[in-house]
């Protein structure tokens, strides 16, 4: 073939791995898309490997692209390729230098999954060896800039024990220190929620990441609080924090915000929490330090069980001074601190208008609502006085607002509000959250 190397490189580079920019739990909310991505990556890697066997010239061009990513699943099927990859990168260090992306999942697109594999003899030892081996691979790959990883953290099994010097503070990333890491998407499964050492891993991780100067994006799912200390120091480059399905004490969230002076995106969704002191104004004070840079804010406390000391609830605070904030996704308790949901009592009079709490340059607003009594009237949200007031305020107070979504677990309908917001130049829609997940 007489094509120039530059053209071959351009062609082969279209076979690079499709990276995942979210934790496994978020990716699998759209199972069809995730399976398609995994399948495509398998085909691309097989094609690149075939190209390396075609000729020396093709090998020299395709090999760096092939080894740019390591993708695997924590299953019996994935264990042998994992061990072979460790042998390769440990014996041929120049190949380890190509690796910039690493990913593991607990299930693959064929249907192989760790849950089923645990029924097989020797599965516990396999899982322990898997994460030790995976940790060793990451230790050889000093040019990693993106990780999308999920792990089991117990007294016997751990991935992060191989990646962090965790015995005592200061916690640091081990081996090469992950000095080029820019994006970290992590998910943790633990059998221990707040009672022992395993629950403290996220605090150790967040402390150790202080030593990673290039980290810009941190997305975490399934994390819990523990006995390790809060974050000490400041992240040098961190711009995006997204916490999902967590059981994280509120104080941990405040600590993260206070340690991130360059935040542009900040979000947290709780899977469950028995509150031991949930004071939203504490987070507001931390966010005020980044009010000139924050562009996206997401806070969902609908699954937090507030204690008696939390009442009366206090809202997050006014966002009028957050001039760069364009996208706001807040639950009712965060935005309004109303004791009763708009779904349950739509005609309640609130002490503050919604527009008074929103940033002046907001373009997208999502209000997350939850009924405490069961919602069985399709159009009841159409009666919400607070939303009619918001429609009235759009032109004067929120001239850039383009879109309002009301999200809940219910099938809502608001034809009158939809028409009113349309007249104000704003798209209004109600979204049933389960519809956003594609199931088998």
Which consecutive residue ranges, at least 5 long each, have pLDDT under 50? Answer: 435-440
Structural class: alpha/beta
Tell me the series of helices and strands, N- to C-terminal.
HHHHEHHEHHEEEEHEEHEEHEEEHEHEHE
Strand content: 15-25%
How are the strands of the largest sheet arranged?
A: 1-2-3-6-7-8-9-11-13-14-15-16
Oligomer description: single chain
Tally of helical runs: 14
What is the total tally of β strands?
16
The helix fraction, in percent, is 25-40%
Main beta sheet, described? 12 strands, parallel
Protein name: F-box domain-containing protein
InterPro entries: LRR_dom_sf
Features:
440 residues; alpha/beta; 14 helices; globular; disordered C terminus
Describe the structure.
The protein has 440 residues and is α/β, with parallel strands linked by helices. Helix content is 32%, strand content 18%. It contains 14 helices and 16 strands. The radius of gyration is 24 Å and the shape is globular. The relative contact order is 0.07. Residues 435-440 have low confidence and may be disordered.
Briefly summarize what is shown.
The protein is an alpha/beta fold.
Secondary-structure topology with pairs:
Layout: H1 5-12, H2 24-27, H3 31-52, H4 56-66, E1 69-73, H5 76-91, H6 93-96, E2 101-105, H7 114-117, H8 123-140, E3 146-153, E4 164-165, E5 172-173, E6 183-190, H9 201-208, E7 217-221, E8 240-246, H10 250-258, E9 265-270, E10 273-274, H11 280-288, E11 296-300, E12 304-305, E13 327-331, H12 332-335, E14 364-368, H13 385-397, E15 403-408, H14 415-423, E16 427-432
Parallel strand pairs: 1-2, 2-3, 3-6, 6-7, 7-8, 8-9, 9-11, 10-12, 11-13, 13-14, 14-15, 15-16
Antiparallel strand pairs: 4-5
Protein name: F-box domain-containing protein
Organism: Aaosphaeria arxii CBS 175.79
